[in-house]
Amino acid sequence: MPGIAPSNAYPCSDGDILIGGNGEAIFARLAKAVGQEGWTRDPRFATHRARGEHQAELDALIADWTRTRTVAEVEAAMLDAQVPVGRIYKAPTSWPTRTWRRGRGGPRSPSPLRRPAHAGRLSPLLRDPWRGAPPRPDTVGQHNFEVFCGDLGLTLEELEALRRRGVL
Questions:
Q1: Would you list the domain boundaries of the chain?
Q2: What is the distance between the alpha carbons of residues 48 and 50, in angstroms, rounded to a whole number?
Q3: What distance in Å separates the CA atoms of residue 162 and residue 67, rounded to the nearest whole number?
Q4: Per CATH, is 7-87 categorized as 3.90.110.10?
């Protein structure tokens, strides 16, 4: 978020993670967690306003640290430091996992596929978060084929069976 720093999605060696360390006390804990306690005394980062004015520079420094660690390592470090942190879940990589199938990834939903399906804590990963979400499709269901056959791996026969049953 522009002027609210640090509060962004940061690259890790195996994905991206959200970190929100913009409050004074939280920022001090974040700086300590990444081994940069001096940031709290640096005029560029010492106050909320200064961090907002030097946001790109601060984000780059944090990204330099996160990039050398896995999502799990960054998440653990931030949780230990009591810094708000969150994984970014994307449906194609999250839905089929054992965790989601066991029901720990969100509430259960009925599935016409007769497979466990879970509504969950999915956060979109946008190419440019400052421009907002991608535009809506022109027609409802416009991307069904790409989602069902591409992302979820259904066959054309399974997709057609869903259409015949009135699911789609």
A1: 7-87, 135-168
A2: 6
A3: 42
A4: no
E runs forming strands in 50-156 = 85-87, 108-109, 117-118
CB 18 within 8 A of CB 9: yes
Beta strands in the chain (DSSP E): 7-12, 15-20, 85-87, 108-109, 117-118
- The mean predicted confidence, pLDDT, of the chain is 77
Give the separation between CA 50 and CA 122, rounded to whole angstroms: 32
User: Both tokens of residue 109?
Assistant: 């939903």
> CB-hemisphere CA count at 13 Å for 79?
9
DSSP tag of 58: H
Predicted TM-score of the model (pTM): 0.56
Q: What's the pLDDT tens digit per position in 81-114?
A: 999 999 887 665 544 444 444 444 444 444 455 4
DSSP 13: T
